Amino acid sequence: MSLDLTEIRREITRIDRQLLKLLAERHCLALDVVRSKELTQKPLRDTEREQQLLQALICHAEEEGYALEPQYITQIFQKIIEDSVLTQQVYLQKKLNQQREQSIHIAFLGKLGSYSNLAARSYATRYREQLVELSCASFEQVFDKVKSGEADYGVLPLENTTSGSINEVYDLLQHTDLSLIGELAYPIKHCVLSATPAEVSQIRTLYSHPQVIQQCSRFIQGLSDVHIEYCESSSHAMQKVSAMGRPDVAALGNEEGGKLYGLQVLKTDIANQPNNITRFIILARNALSVSAQIHSKTLLLMRTSQQAGALVDALSIFKKHGINMTKLESRPIYGTPWEEMFYLEIEANINHPDIRKMLEELKGYSTYLKILGCYPSEIVKPVALAAE
Q: Is 46 labelled as part of a ligand binding site?
């Protein structure tokens, strides 16, 4: 007996809606959890509890005879756990800093549809704010709009899993009084976008931002007789290609942005690495307080003497105090040949007495030390199942 496809799809829709209802109920319970932890001052994350939860779910599925692979169960519930953690962080941060829902102005690189614009929207959605979008032609202009008060926040890419650090942003951080108040990991999915139906083999000119070109270098090398045109942002590239309306030109950008400019996707997933993620930072004029219950990070700017072993001695302070350093980046100091400024990202909250003590000790090993910002870590590392 053949099964009716329409009826099957109707049943799938019914189950999907049940899943949505249950996910919404679980999301609400996450807020009840944070209100309870707010009273006890327990840390938001309990990785041991998360590990036990995943293992128990896998065992339950096996006992009930559900045809679900452990990896499938783990991936789904790790995403659910991530949503719970971030929801609880937002609750504590808005309450601690007395933030109310309002319209916020966010400056970003490029026009509507750029990756920075999409990251800005994601940040505003997470904090349930109404967004006023301010497009900028350069990273420096993003800094200027926040500094002048025209923008409440600035969203800037700091590093990418394929192309590495964005040095221009690091250099601008070296000379700003703005504070880093947040971070955001945004998945980057590059596509070939055209204004008319075409084949990739027809393309003779590709438009995009230098970072996008770098992240898709292997795909581009596989093309023949293609000229590269660099643009201020991927959204500028999409706008240009849309205006040309020709089958022999294309933009490299994202599908969502392409829709804004009436572009068609010719090919997807063209980045060198399939798991292509950009970490964005959020800048504001004033620093925010970070709850002690939240896993937080601090970005430091440091310079050491030119004596042998000076940097090693400074870094040993973190080991002494049991502090994990997640990033060490060096950039030249303009006007001072052969000297470098170091950016150090540590997993620590500067409001903790032990961290303040550590920073005082670190000053003795550096000729310059500045706190660029302390902020909640929004990159929730999934827990792994215990080895059997």
A: yes
